[in-house]
Each structure stands twice: as structure tokens, then as C-alpha cells.
Design a protein that fits this description.
- The structure is a single chain.
- By secondary structure, the protein is mainly α.
- It has a domain of about 60 residues.
- Helix 2 runs antiparallel to helix 3.
- The chain is rod-shaped and about 95 Å long.
- The two termini are about 45 Å apart.
- About 0% of the residues are buried.
């Protein structure tokens, strides 16, 4: 009788552990700026920094186009900084629609 009680208690305990563990993994995660693709914005910013360095090191003025490109790169860097600030201040709303099968 005692052996049967131990087996039943063990099965119930294992069931609770597996059940709650599965429940924890299936909870919908709160959207964050990182999950919204912020890493792609950072990668683009790094590419723009590299482009700016290359343009600054260019020895030829290219008829003013190099200076214009530098100006546009700096403008794009500013836009990306604003995008990051916006993403951090306004995380995306979580979707309430269930995934389709």
C-alpha cells in the first residue's frame, strides 16, 4: 500500500513539474525593442560608420559628391539614432491573434 502511494505521489509530482514547465515556455513573451529588430538598426548604424570613415579617407573630392555623400551618411546616422530612441520609448503592441496552423 505504501509503495503504491509513493508511486502515485511521484507521478503527480512529475506531472506538476512537467505541466508547469510547459506552461512557462508557452507564455507569450512581451515585445521588446530588441525583438522588434533593433539589432538590424544597430547593424545599419555600424555600416554607416564604416562608410563615413571610408568617405573621409578618400583622397579625391569627386566633384563635390564625396562631401554630399558624407552629409547624407551623417543625416542617416541621425535618423537611426532617432529610430532607436523611438523603438525604446514605444515597444510594439503584442499581437492577440493566435498563430495560424
Amino acid at each position: 500500500m505504501l509503495k503504491r502511494s509513493v508511486i502515485v505521489a511521484s507521478v503527480l509530482a512529475i506531472g506538476f513539474v512537467l505541466g508547469f514547465g510547459t506552461l512557462a515556455f508557452t507564455q507569450e513573451k512581451k515585445p521588446t525593442a530588441t525583438r522588434a529588430g533593433l539589432h538590424l538598426i544597430h547593424a545599419a548604424a555600424k555600416s554607416l560608420e564604416d562608410a563615413e570613415k571610408h568617405l573621409q579617407r578618400a583622397e579625391h573630392h569627386f566633384g563635390g559628391h564625396r562631401a554630399k555623400a558624407l552629409e547624407l551618411v551623417k543625416q542617416a546616422e541621425g535618423e537611426l539614432k532617432q529610430a532607436v530612441e523611438y523603438a525604446k520609448a514605444n515597444p510594439p503592441a503584442s499581437s492577440t491573434t493566435p498563430p495560424t496552423k
